[in-house]
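User: Please predict the structure of the protein below. I'd like the answer in C-alpha cell form so I can feed it into my own downstream comparison script.

Assistant: Understood. Taking the following sequence of 301 residues as input:
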Amino acid sequence: MRHFDLHCDTLSRCRSQKQGLFGNDGALSVERGLIFDQWVQAFAVFIDDEKRGVKAYREFLAQAEILQKAIASDDRIVPFDKDNIREGVCNAMLTVENGAAIGGKLERIEEFAQMGVKVFSLVWNGENELAGGVHSEMGLTDFGRKAVRELEKNGIIIDVSHLNSLSFWDLCEVAERPFIATHSNCFEICPNRRNLDDLQIEEIIRRKGLIGINFFPIFINGESDATFQELRAHIRRIIALGGEDCIAVGSDFDGAAMPSRLDRIEKIPDWHENLLKHFDPDFVEKITFRNAERFFRENLA
C-alpha cells in the first residue's frame, strides 16, 4: 500500500504543543505512519492570519526547523525526492500555507526554494500582501502577481486552496504552470466557500493540476462527522468532470477535526480498503499515490 498526502498541519501543532514529529499524540506522527510501502507526506508551515511581516517569516523558520531537525536526527524521515521515493520511510515535503510567510519580501521566495519548499499557498482565509482568501473580497494584488511569477521561476508549485473566487481567477490570468488545490473538496456536493466549484475544478483539470480530497467533515457534508460514502461522493464528482488523473489526497490532519473513521493516520488503510470495494484497484492507486507522484515528477525541476 502506498500513500501520498498533499497536506497536514502537524508542524504547527507540534510547535504549539512542544512535541516532535515522532511520538506526538496528534492525528499524525512519523512512527505511526510507517505502515505504508511508500509514504510521501507534505508538511505545511501554517501561518495564522494575525502574523505578518517579520513575525510571519520567523514563524515559518521555526516550523521549518522542526522538520529539518527531525530529518537530521532520524533516518526514518527523509527529504522528498521526486526521482527517488524511498520505501519504508517518511518522504517529507516542505510546503507553505499562507504566503504571509515571506514577510512581504519577494527575494525570500528564492530562499524558500533553496530550503526545499515545494508547494506554496498564497493566502489563508483572510487576506495578506498577495491575495484574498475565502473570508475576504480582495483579489490577487500587484505584489501577488509578482510573487506568482517568482514562485514559478523558482519551481515552486502554487496551491489555490483557501483562495476566494476572485483571487483564483486572477491567478489564472497570470499562472503559466500547473497549480494544485492541496486540500479542497467539491462545492456542488458541499456548498462551503472553501470548496471548489465545477468551473474551478475544470480549470485545474485543464491545466493538469491536482485536487487533494480533504477529510474535514465540514467540507464533506457540513456536519461534525462524515462517512466514507460521503467522502466518495466528492471523488465521483471530480471523476464526472473529467478529473480521474487529477484526484489526490489532502487529509488536513492536525489542521481540522477529522471523521471518526479517519481521524488518525493509522486508519488510512481502512479507507484504502473501502475505496477498493467501490473503485478499480488501478484507479485507487491513482487517487492514493500515483497521480500525485506523476505530477511532482513532471512539474518539479
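That's the full C-alpha cell string. The CA atoms of residues 155 and 300 lie 6 Å apart.
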